[in-house]
Design brief:
Layout lengths: L1 H20 L12 H123 L3 E3 L2 E16 L26 E5 L4 E9 L4 E12 L13 E12 L4 E9 L32 E11 L3 E8 L12 E4 L1 E2 L15 E2 L5 E8 L5 E20 L24 E17 L6 E11 L12 E3 L5 E3 L1 E14 L2 E12 L2 E6 L5 E6 L34 E18 L2 E16 L16 E14 L2
Antiparallel strand pairs: 1-2, 2-3, 2-4, 2-25, 4-5, 5-6, 6-7, 7-8, 8-9, 9-13, 10-14, 11-12, 13-14, 14-15, 15-16, 16-19, 17-18, 19-20, 20-23, 21-22, 23-24, 24-25
Helix pairs in contact: 1-2
Length: 637
């Protein structure tokens, strides 16, 4: 580009110089004559040469000046070229710097954005840290509080949680004593109907027994499925006796199951329970709910005469109607208690347990051969104040009768055989005799004040063949002369008063009675004598019930013995009880409780003729017993 510009400038100057050498007004035409023009031409030539020289000089100077200017211009162009190169270099450098600056600016911008973002994030993080720190402080405080609470809860926990199941232990450990004016050869549970009449040598001595066998442990397991609450309950004590049990050295008595059952409770109010439990006939405090049973507050493990109860196998279905009314039905394990005298016909209602049947082979009363279970239906009501129950029991009893095999009496073979036996004793004609018994009862418990410091209760049971469901265990059946079963009508009642003057003190007063009707028969033997049979006959011999004392025999442990004849079938038995429980401590560590009970027991027998024949005033035997119990217990929390 620079060379092209110089070339054009030189061409321009050359052209200008050529033009300068040619006169402006020169004419191409020839002169008219040489001669005429010579002087004038010489003259003019001299002038022209001088002028031309001047012009040439001027032109030279102009060219020189132009050359100088050109040189200056060249130098200027060179300078400018250098400046342009420098500018280009500077521009390139600036451009590079600009690019670098732009990159740096972009990087800085990005970095600034990142810094801003990081700053914002950092600020957020700092804020979060502040919040987190505050939350952490709160959490630490909460954790510390929760830890302390959890520790306290763990220390005071009454439940154990495992795989969604809640386990609740319970029960108490007891140290108890029983003193009786007339010995019953019993621990802290009283066999009421064995209180001896005066002719029995056991009526002449008192007894004192002490033990911890009523100590009780329980374990409740509860869990919830989708639509059902499942429960299992196990309760035990040591009021069982093994073949090797004794009170001489180690007092090693057997653990026994009081209750062991499982239950399914549905939101609709239905519950299904199966296992060993309190009978449905037993009073409850809330509806028909298991574990709310309401036995008398006695220390005596047999409770009180007149109380309706049993603990046995049961399968129970109950329905709750809005916590105001309940109805239940139970199938329960049957048994039979029998008292009979003078029956001439052979029969059996049961037998001792077999050794391999895991029943008690040492129980002399044996086990009844029942044909069906017992059936119990019950309804409970809680209209607002108080708890009210009504129930019914149906029980079946069976005997195997041998009409052609009569009991040998004195004189020998004086009892008649039926004509169908052909005068020969045999097992021929044997048959099974089945009888259906039943009855009903009520249970009432009502507070007399809003604070429930004063409560009264009433319990009643009446029917045929249901004596087994009462505390005194009156007989269910007896027999007729032909060996068939006869149901004994009877019943009982219990009135209770409970006073709770303070949370630490409970007072109670009970009076109960149980009774049975005469169920008596007779037959005439071969010598024409009238022979009484059954239960409570006025012809039974009670001549020695209240006189004399039998010699129990030789040796230190002669056993209970009675002098003379004393049938003494039970007419009624009555018991009055008064006692208290005091709770010196009740808290998260458990509870301490101690109490004293006093009972006055009266056993009255049906009158008998005294063996002096018809028309002789009967003798009604009577036995009295005073009993005192003490208890000191530690209850698990």
């Amino acid at each position: 580009m620079k060379k092209l510009a110089a070339f054009l400038l030189l061409l321009f100057l050359t052209t200008g110089l050529a033009l300068a050498d040619t006169p402006k007004d020169a004419d191409a035409k020839p002169a008219k004559t040489a001669d005429a023009a010579k002087p004038k031409a010489a003259k003019e030539k001299a002038k022209s040469d001088s002028a031309l020289a001047a012009e040439i000089e001027e032109l030279r100077q102009a060219i020189q000046s132009q050359q100088e200017q050109l040189q200056l211009l060249k130098e200027e162009l060179a300078k400018r070229d250098r400046q342009i190169d420098e500018a280009r270099e500077a521009a390139a450098a600036a451009n590079a710097r600009a690019v670098e600056a732009s990159d740096k600016a972009t990087e800085a911008a990005n970095s600034s954005a990142e810094v801003k973002s990081a700053t914002a994030t950092l600020n957020t993080t700092v804020s979060d840290l502040k919040v987190s720190n505050a939350a952490l402080t709160t959490s630490v405080a909460t954790v510390a509080k929760d830890t302390a609470a959890a520790k306290a809860q763990q220390e005071n926990a009454t439940e154990i949680h495992f795989k969604g199941i809640t386990f609740t232990p319970g029960g108490f450990l007891a140290a108890e004593t029983a003193w009786r004016q007339r010995t019953l050869q019993a621990d802290v549970n009283s066999p009421f109907t064995t209180t001896p009449f005066p002719n029995n040598n056991m009526s002449r001595v008192s007894e004192f027994n002490a033990s911890g066998r009523q100590s009780r442990l329980s374990f409740l397991a509860e869990g919830k499925a989708d639509l059902v609450k499942l429960s299992g309950y196990y309760e035990l004590d040591w009021l069982g006796a093994c073949a090797s049990s004794n009170s001489r050295q180690s007092n090693s008595y057997c653990m026994r199951q009081r209750q062991i059952w499982g239950q399914a409770a549905f939101p609709s109010g239905w519950t299904v329970t199966g296992g060993q439990m309190w009978s449905l006939a037993t009073e409850t405090k809330k509806g028909l709910d298991n574990r709310t049973e309401a036995p008398p507050m006695t220390i005596d493990a047999a409770y009180n005469v007149g109380f309706t109860w049993a603990r046995q196998y049961g399968f129970r279905v109950a329905k709750n109607f809005s916590d105001k009314a309940w109805i239940g039905f139970a199938v329960e394990n049957p048994q039979l208690t029998i008292t009979t005298h003078g029956s001439p016909t052979s029969f059996f209602v049961g037998a001792p347990a077999s050794g391999g049947g895991v029943l008690n082979a040492t129980d002399g009363t044996g086990y009844a051969a029942n044909s069906t279970p017992d059936f119990i239906v019950k309804a409970a009501f809680e209209p607002g104040r108080g708890h009210y129950e009504v129930f019914g029991i149906v029980a079946n009893y069976r005997a195997r009768v041998y009409p052609c095999f009569v009991v040998v009496t004195t004189p020998v073979n004086t009892n008649p055989l039926p004509a169908s036996c052909g005068g020969v004793q045999s097992s021929g004609g044997a048959f099974s005799d089945t009888r259906t018994g039943g009855g009903g009862g009520v249970n009432i418990r009502m507070p007399l004040d809003r604070a429930r410091k004063f409560e009264v209760g009433a319990h009643g049971l009446f029917g045929d063949g249901i004596g087994r469901y009462s505390a005194a265990q009156i007989a269910d059946v007896t027999t007729r002369p032909d060996g068939t079963l006869a149901l004994i009508r009877g019943g009982g009642g219990l009135g209770t008063v409970e006073v709770h003057p303070s949370p630490k003190l409970d007072l109670y007063l009970n009076y109960g009675i149980e009774f049975s009707h005469r169920t008596a028969y007779t037959f005439t033997n071969l010598v024409g004598a009238t022979v009484p049979v059954g239960f409570g006959s006025p012809l039974f011999n009670n001549s020695s019930c209240e006189v004399g004392e039998a010699n129990p025999g030789t040796g230190g442990f002669g056993g209970s013995a009675a002098a003379g004849a004393c049938t003494g079938d039970l007419r009624n038995i009555q018991e009055g009880t008064v006692g208290f429980w005091h709770k010196p401590y009740q808290g998260p560590k458990g509870g301490l409780r101690w109490g004293i009970q006093y009972s006055y027991l009266v056993r009255n027998g049906w009158s008998g003729s005294g063996g002096l024949g018809p028309g002789t005033p009967g003798i009604s035997p009577k036995a009295v017993n005073n009993m005192v119990f003490t208890s000191f217990r530690y209850y698990l929390p």
